[in-house]
Amino acid sequence: MKKRVVIVDDSRSMRGLIHQCLLADGRFDIVGEASEPFEARAVIRETNPDVITLDVEMPRMDGLTFLEKLMRLRPIPVVMLSTETHRGSAAAIEALSLGAVDCIGKPRAGEPGALADLAERVFVAACAHLPSREPRAAPSSAAFRWNGKTVLIGASTGGVDALERILCEMPANAPPILIAQHMPKGFLESFAERLSRRIAPKVGLARGREELQPGRVLIAPGGAHHLVLTTERVGAKSTCRLDPGEKCNGHRPSVDVLFRSAVPMASRVVPVLLTGMGRDGADGMMRLRREGAETIAQDRASCVVYGMPRVAVELGAVSQSVPLGRIASAILEQTSAKERAAT
User: Fold this and answer.
1) Same domain for 159 and 269?
2) Residue 274 within a domain
3) What is the Cα 121 distance to its own chain's centre?
4) Is 156 a catalytic residue?
5) Which residues form the Response regulatory domain (predicted)?
6) Is 280 a catalytic residue?
7) What is the pLDDT of residues 240-272, one digit of tens each?
């Protein structure tokens, strides 16, 4: 059965481009279009679509305000379309945090192939599961003593909200955390800036070779680079660096590249695989588990898209399948120094 789509965008030409792209794919019925949110509200009520494409910047009511109302009153899978300017990227990250399934950069003039994967991503969104959105927990006030393990997290579709929820529960002295999130470079910059205002540990994009330190979260910058863990050491500290390698599984940054780089030190890392389409990270997680790593995957019920974790489970790469609301505590359990029993 074809997926029913409503297109919401104030640009007639952009609506036409999206319409043409989705119809050519053959898996969609375009059941309605709207140029602004008040019109969209009526169209959605009349057509009951499976998925909506939604522009961020529109007249009368911006896309974020409309999205927030939609997720509160009538949750439905939404794919946001935004420019990759700083302002547009920040709005896109806000949208993903509010519950949008995916966000796609609008094509610039002279970029006819910019929406090449639009149909696939809209189809994935139409099939996505929208889990209940529990309130975020405050950072733990309990004392945490690091045991020297580094946390490696991979995520794709649905990952922005999942990562924010996990990191909001991390104490200021959290274990070092490296993240590979599938997202364009401009969106990743805005994501790092958003997290830096909302979580206790310090957050930034990885730049060159850096020491791994407690209380520090580094995100792969994307674009031309992967993020990898290195066996080299500066003093007594491990390091990470950027790798200008080819795309892996169609992605750069790639979760598999990050995970595979840690195989020589598998017993000293905690790999975590979150919601996302495809299989990126599953093979790397399998290699890490074979070498002794305790691995964590987000469970089916709490994933927006149970793709990457599902493949990892099927490969036998997962030590624990954990609901999103308990992943932070599972990470802290694996990275906390255990008190020695009194003799």
Assistant:
1) yes
2) yes
3) 14
4) yes
5) 4-121
6) yes
7) 999 998 999 999 999 999 999 999 999 999 999
